Amino acid sequence: MNLLDATPSAVGTPADEINWKVLLSEYQWLRDLEGVEQSPVHHQEGDVLTHVRMVCEQLVTRPAWQQLPPETREELFAATLLHDIAKPECSRQTDDGGISSRGHARRGAIRARRILWEQGVDPARRERICGIVQSHMLPFHLLDRDSPLRDAARAAEVANWEFTTLHAEADARGRICDDIPQILERIDLARDFVTESGFYNQPLSFANDHTRVLFFRGERELPHEPAWFDPTCTVTVMSGLPGAGKDTWIERHADAQPVVSLDDWREKLSVSPAANQGRVVQAAREAAREHLRAGRDFVWNATNISRPVRSQCLKLLAEYGARIEIVHVEASPEQLLQQNQHRNAAVPRDVMDRLIDRWEPPTRIEAHRVTYVNA
To answer: What spatial distance separates the first Cα and last Cα of the chain, rounded to whole Å?
Structure first.
């Protein structure tokens, strides 16, 4: 069952229409939430599954949710079902006897992405759902952050703040604890802050692309003040799982440019995709430096599938003053499997699984331009 089809109607008594029996029989990841303990301070209601059920029931009884367009209701309900999916793997007992689930929002977005991708959910809809999962904790503590404007703007690149705060309200009400009024007040303050900053229903606007890049790097504080930029060259950074179609895109759109390819270096150095990639990455980085020093446009062709891995590449390009354009290519699970099998060096299934479990598509936070291509 496609998760978007599980959304109850917005009329009548929708809380009674959530078919938990069907959902629990259909999804192992939902059953896995049962028995996972939570902080006794913030979650006196019990385990994670109990909390998720309470949050979903709170969401669908809220008039604000009921009045949304059907497509948005579906996405928000799916995000609410998925929002704590990573708690089983992220929850740890603390030294003082409490329970911490640090990192479960980001990890949950990655897990949700794989589920929705395998179900064939449209990529744009999938990423809106994952954006809410990734950002769902932020309204609780936005104004305690060192850079609330930057953190709120970063979240706005992947999720609409209206829907994030609507979820957060349901998340607060769908629990038993002593400070629910204070939590709801924090959410209201976060909503007011983002509204006054002018990007409650859309991403923050910037004077130009380079201003945006510098702002998210923490090198600029004013988003509306244009940053001067005279790039030394333009580097196209490919991103996508093995077999998604990156080589095909390069042949069609950038064949005249030099290409720094990790696959080529693996072949030259006789390194398996399953082996340590240190030598391959080092060789590719040195080849990239030669182009950067010459001020030459080129293509960097690698999976670049996770944000931490991309950041290493992007940092090098930024040091040389390059304009960075990321092209993210993806395919359906069936296409990916077929195309990977026809590669000169097919990536082993276990390696592919590890890559999928780290998959974070790029956003405008990372580069001057990001293009998404569906094979």
So the answer is: 24
Could you give the CA distance from residue 303 to residue 329 in angstroms, rounded to a whole number?
A: 10
- Parallel, antiparallel or unpaired: strands 298-301 and 234-239: parallel
Read off the pLDDT of residues 312-365 as tens digits, 9 standing for 90 and up.
999 999 999 999 999 999 999 999 988 888 877 788 889 899 999 999 999 999
Q: Partners of 324 in the beta sheet?
A: 235
pTM value surpassing 0.85: yes
Residue 90, CA distances (Å) to 13, 107, 344 in order: 34, 8, 37
Cβ-in-10-Å burial (0-12, 13-18, 19+) of 13 comes to exposed
Phi, psi of 93 (to 5 degrees): -80, 135
Return d(Cα 210, Cα 208) in angstroms, integer. Answer: 6
How far is it, in rounded angstroms, from Cα 184 to Cα 199? 20
DSSP letter string, 126-183: HHHHHHHHHHTTHHHHGGGSS-HHHHHHHHHTTS-HHHHHHHHHHHHHSS--TTHHHH
CA distance 74 to 54: 17
Copy the structure tokens of residue 348: 């082993």
CA 342 to chain centre: 29
| Distance, CA of 37 to CA of 11 (rounded, Å) | 34
Q: Are 224 and 312 in contact (CB under 8 A)?
A: no
Query: Residue 156 corresponds to which tokens in the numbers above?
Result: 């706005």
Closest CA to 214 of 1, 6, 38, 366: 366
Three-class secondary structure of residue 364 per DSSP: coil
Which stretches within the chain are classed as H helix? 20-26, 28-31, 48-60, 63-66, 70-82, 87-90, 104-118, 123-135, 138-141, 148-156, 161-173, 180-197, 209-217, 246-253, 262-269, 278-294, 307-319, 333-341, 349-356
What was the pLDDT predicted at 360?
A: 98
Of the candidates 325, 295, 332, which has an alpha carbon nearest to the alpha carbon of residue 310?
Answer: 325
Q: Are 194 and 200 in contact (CB under 8 A)?
A: yes
Number of residues in the chain:
375
Answer yes or no: are the C-beta atoms of 220 and 211 closer than 8 Å: yes
